[in-house]
Amino acid sequence: MPEDASMKPAVLAALLLVSTLTHAQAPQHVHVVSDDAFSDMQSPQQNERIATVVRAVDELRRQGRLPQATLQAETMDLAWPLLPTGRFNQFDYHGTSNFVDHGPPYPGPIQDYNCGTRSYNLPSGYNHAGTDYYLWPFPWSMMDEGQVQIVAAAPGVIVGKDDGNFDRNCSLSGSASPNIVYVLQDDGLTAIYMHMRNGSVTTQAVGTRVAAGDYLGLVGSSGSSTGPHLHFELRDAAGAVVDPRNGQCNAAPERWIVFQPYEDPHIDTLSTHSAEPVLVGCGVDSNGNAVAETPNYKDEFTPGDEMWVFASYRDQRNGQITHFSITRPDATPFAQWDFDLASQNNPNPFYSGSSVDWKFTLPTNAPIGVWMVTALFQGQTYTRTFTVGLSLPPWLPRLPRPPRQHPRM
Fold first, then answer.
1. For 21-33+264-388, CATH number?
2. How many angstroms separate the CA atoms of 313 and 268, rounded?
3. Partners of 273 in beta bridges
């Protein structure tokens, strides 16, 4: 059968595409969040401070200066307590490290609301009493830039607050005091917002009424804390801990307006860089000087440049494969590769936070125009654009948000 001459250009083009397609090598570095990276401890002094606030609330009620407790056990009234500031151009900014521990004191087994072990207890007798939401993937840099606000999860009255405490702690120190706000919610529960950045606590006076979403402070690492995070805790009128998440090991009603899954796998950020991001484990160095991550963001390149692609995840589990690609301005693929956390042989199959990066060298004859990095993960598509040989106008978005359900208010 004679060969169709019209097919020759298409075949040649396909062969050329295959020959110029770059398959990424193994990641340069993969970082996972350890179990103790974003945790906290309440010292006896802090427990007494909480008890003092609860007693003060009860006394104010008796004096008629606050409404009587009207706890509506079936009401889901909690809105998301974090809010990005300014022009936020990433998909997300947080991971969830720990839930309330319902198990017996140390050394008893750990048991979160879902009968899992995403919590902890300590030899001091402390069972983790709240939910920890940490900044990710550059927590100290994000903290220094004030990228994430802490906002009221429910309407109520400010009944206590503390500020002026050191906010770059990296260890569980019983003597460290947190920057903190206490809000007596309309449902009768006292909400505790802990570990705020020094100097960021709301200027609203004790006794001021707040609405859901009102500013309370910025995420920090004050008090007994191992990294920048919000410790969100609820106490009832008797001072007992209330877990806002309903599950097999917590019969109390669900209190979040928008349901938050036990595992919520997403890509938090997808970005391009001039060099590999520099990470730090603590916000101070060995000499006590403040330090933070250096992201090395860059989205405008020239042919022949070295370029790094960086992705960060929350709640990533082995076997959840991400399909990555880099496409040229004409939509042809420059690189395609897959990533599975299982390839790293980590000791655990699941991590609340992780990040990974790859290095590429753009060809010296790279086409001029807008290129795109795409990641397909758990049914969602994430994209990041960058340019080669030209500058994008400032109003053109670099990072379109993918459509997805999200626990935000």
1. 2.60.40.1930
2. 5
3. 297, 308
Pairing, β 306-317 against β 350-361: antiparallel
Is residue 48 within a helix (H) or strand (E), and if so which, with residue range? helix 44-62
Cα separation, 152 vs 150, in Å, equals: 7
Mapped onto helix, strand or coil, the DSSP state of residue 171 is strand
Number of neighbouring beta carbons within 10 Å of residue 18: 8
Among left, alpha and beta (phi > 0; psi -120 to 50; other), residue 345 is left
Distance separating alpha carbons of residues 51 and 61, to the nearest angstrom:
15
Could you identify the residue written with the tokens 């990710």? Answer: 136
Distances (CA, A) of 36 to 15, 33, 168: 50, 8, 16
For residue 67, what pLDDT is reported? Answer: 64
Taking phi over 0 as left and psi of -120 to 50 as alpha, with beta for the rest, 341 belongs to alpha
Distance (Å, whole) CA 229 – CA 93: 11
Residue 177 CA to residue 42 CA, distance in Å, equals 9
The single-letter code of the amino acid at 402 is P
Residue from 89, 359, 133 nearest 260 by CA: 133
CATH superfamily of 44-242: Glucose Permease (Domain IIA) (2.70.70.10)
The first and second tokens of residue 352, run together, are 């609340």
How does DSSP assign 302-342, residue by residue?
A: -TT-EEEEEEEEEEEETT--EEEEEE-TTS-EEEEEEE-GG
Domain boundary assignment for the chain: 21-33+264-388, 44-242
**Out of 2-6, 48-52, 277-281, 392-396, which region has the weakest mean confidence (pLDDT)?**
2-6
The DSSP bridge partners found for residue 324 are 337, 375
Q: What is the mean pLDDT of residues 186-198?
A: 96
Question: Which SS3 state, helix, strand or coil, does residue 160 take?
Answer: strand
Helices (H), 124-204: 139-144
User: Backbone phi, then psi, for 57, in 5-degree steps?
Assistant: -60, -45
Is residue 340's pLDDT more than 60? yes
For the chain, the 3-state helix, strand and coil shares in percent, each to the nearest 5, are 10, 35, 55
Reported confidence tier of residue 25, pLDDT bands at 50, 70, 90: confident
Instruction: Tell me: pLDDT of 191 over 70.
Output: yes
SS3 219: strand
Residue 126 tokens, joined = 């402390």
Nearest to 133 by CA among 38, 204, 54: 38
